[in-house]
Amino acid sequence: YPTWKRTLARRARESQMKRFCRAQAIQRRLEEIEVTFRELEQQGIKLEKLLRDENGSPADQQTQWTNQLLYLVQKKNNLMMEESDLMIAVQELKLEEQQCQLDEKLRSYLNKEDTLKTPEDEKAEQEILKQLVEVVNKRNVLIQLQEEKRLSEL
Description:
Layout: H1 3-53, H2 59-110, H3 119-153
Helix pairs in contact: 1-2, 2-3
């Protein structure tokens, strides 16, 4: 087994582990966001009840509750934006994984001697190349989407 093949296989495993770790971290963060959403919603419900029920409270108290409610809404909006970014990252990870698998398949066809390739092999090679281009284009669209989102936030 040539050294370059072992190196490629090792690098593929390493990048797969990195993607797996990133996916786990994203999943954990999405779960944390979900819990925080529920907490914010409960706090918001309490504040809304206070604002509706306490007509005789001092004006500063009502202003304070209103400000707290607005803060909760702002915090929830920030979490929604972060969740959106994470969902894009998940899609990007899936496409990255798909690209690596297609790269590996394509490499196996390209390493085969031209004289040993059957017409089916050549057709499969072209199909894989076509799929690889599609995946790269999809990743490019995601990157453009992230860039547009980042620029609109600025």
